[in-house]
Amino acid sequence: MLNKDQFADNHFIRTTIEDDLQSGKHTAIQTRFPPEPNGYLHIGHAKSICLNFGLAYVFDGKCNLRFDDTNPEKENQEYVDSIKEDVQWLGFKWDGEPRYASDYFDQLFDYAVGLIKDGKAYVCELTPEEMREYRGTLTEAGKNSPYRDRTPEENLDLFMKMRDGAFPDGSKTLRLKIDMASGNINMRDPVIYRIRRAHHHNTGDKWCIYPMYDYTHAISDAIENITHSLCTLEFEAHRPLYDWVLDNIPIQSHPRQYEFSRLELLYSITSKRKLNQLVSENHVSSWDDPRMPTISGMRRRGYTPEGLRLFAKRVGISKSENIVDMSVLEGAIREELEHSAPRLMAVLNPLKVTLTNFEHGKTQSRTAAFHPNNDSFGEREVPISSTIYIEQDDFAEVPPKGWKRLTLGGEVRLRHGYVIKCDEVVKDENGQIIELKCSIDHDTLGKNPEGRKVKGVIHWVSAEHAVPIKARLYDRLFTVERPDAVRGDDGEYLPFTDFINPQSIQEITAFAEPVVRDLPAESHWQFERMGYFVTDRYDHKMGETPVFNRTVTLKDSWQK
Ligand code: ATP
Ligand code: MG
């Protein structure tokens, strides 16, 4: 459930909006989230979604979902569908129907015709190489295109022919006539239309010319009466163009653009293009592989919408660098699951323990709450039998200093059960420990043992009752903080795929309490002492071996 405290506060965009509402500049705000449907959304988009939808929510305004679909070769319906699903899953609702920049292609075309008639746009025939050459550099002014002074009539005729398919792809462009000497390269007669015979997921083969991003974006915002157009900092230098376009076409609305810094997550990648490469080169199984920083991958991993919103709030909104360690994300997820996930016991690396004095009728099972601080999760019986499994790590024959768990001759409490003492260690011919023989202190169920303190508590399952489960243990996908910024000896960037963590997934069979038998998919649990787990969205099927993904460990176990 959303509530107004869940969103970043005290940032400059929020105070600007407060001022605009207070001064009466706007009576209500309208924001938008404008993804290009050329891939699945990632954690950076989650930040932008929480900002745009969050502000609309906090100020009782509206937020549109608009697909910025001006590059038909790279875009498709699968991406459109996944984006809608992700936004909804994060807890947000867009205003009305989803919008598409392609819905405005006719209007965009008409405005371009108007600009041509006003002498503010011209058809140019420079090749891409020539265009680069004419553009100048950061320190040198550009040169006017030889086609710049065509008459409006000539331009109009050529532009209509461009639309009607009279010219080959890439042979002509429509450019704004602004200023080739501008200190801002974006203002040096930017291209606003190009010829591209590509099938569009929405408009099919209707168009062979497509408008460029900056032109499209500004006008789409204005058509939708956006009040605050929020984007990442790399668009700061595009703002003069955004304003120029809206100042030079006959449209009432003039949204204001504000820029904030992009989120970068260490040990991760936030670029759709690179994520696409991970999928297409089969480094991961799919866009929603639980190791992916995509919203759908994180969902499958067991991250929750509430946890991701908490993360977005914590990283905040500003104009300064926003490089965030993975531990901040994992911390937010963990913190949220601590309250929202019921708990049970599962043993991942089982060591057989025979309870030598187990006695039917005398040795009792206990009921235990699913959560120590939340009765609403209910309780279950934790069955015991003469053989149990404990975690291999919870026994040490030669214990280190301060060891609180089990050792030969030592005692430990079984969570929700008795205190046991290890009397004998059984080994195989290779000296591997294969079994422990332990005795129960029957006078310790729900009470402290007489005359001594037993500090350690370990989790366990009854071998007779335990359900085998498939557990997928995930680790970070990359072995270095910035996989896409490592240079080789020659100074060139190394492929980021060189830094994929070969141990990023491990699948094991584990043993869990009987309650796991009847769980639906996407059910979140804490396995006590072992981490948070979720039943896999796709592979977990009722009546079959349960499949759990480890969402995150209980403590930050990652050491640099
Ligand atoms: P990518 O490089 O991954 O393709 P993009 O910016 O091209 O990202 P869009 O689909 O154009 O992706 O982005 C939609 C919105 O999400 C934009 O407003 C964009 O600024 C925002 N956004 C994208 N990446 C991030 C990020 N890392 N942090 C914050 N906002 C982001
Ligand atoms: Mg983009």
Question: Would you write up a description of this structure?
Answer:
By secondary structure, the protein is of the alpha/beta class. The protein has 3 domains: 4-100 and 215-333, HUPs (Rossmann fold), CATH 3.40.50.620; 105-212, Glutamyl-tRNA Synthetase, domain 3, CATH 3.90.800.10; 344-465, Beta Barrel (Ribosomal Protein L25, Chain P), CATH 2.40.240. Helices cover 24% and strands 22% of the residues. It has 12 helices and 27 strands. The protein has helices at residues 12-22, 43-58, 77-89, 105-117, 128-135, 152-163, 213-223, 239-247, 272-280, 295-301, 305-315, 326-340, and strands spanning 30-33, 62-67, 99-100, 121-124, 173-176, 191-195, 209-211, 228-232, 256-260, 263-265, 322-324, 343-344, 346-347, 350-355, 366-369, 379-382, 387-391, 411-414, 419-427, 433-441, 457-458, 460-462, 467-474, 505-512, 524-527, 531-535, 547-552. It binds adenosine-5'-triphosphate and magnesium ion.
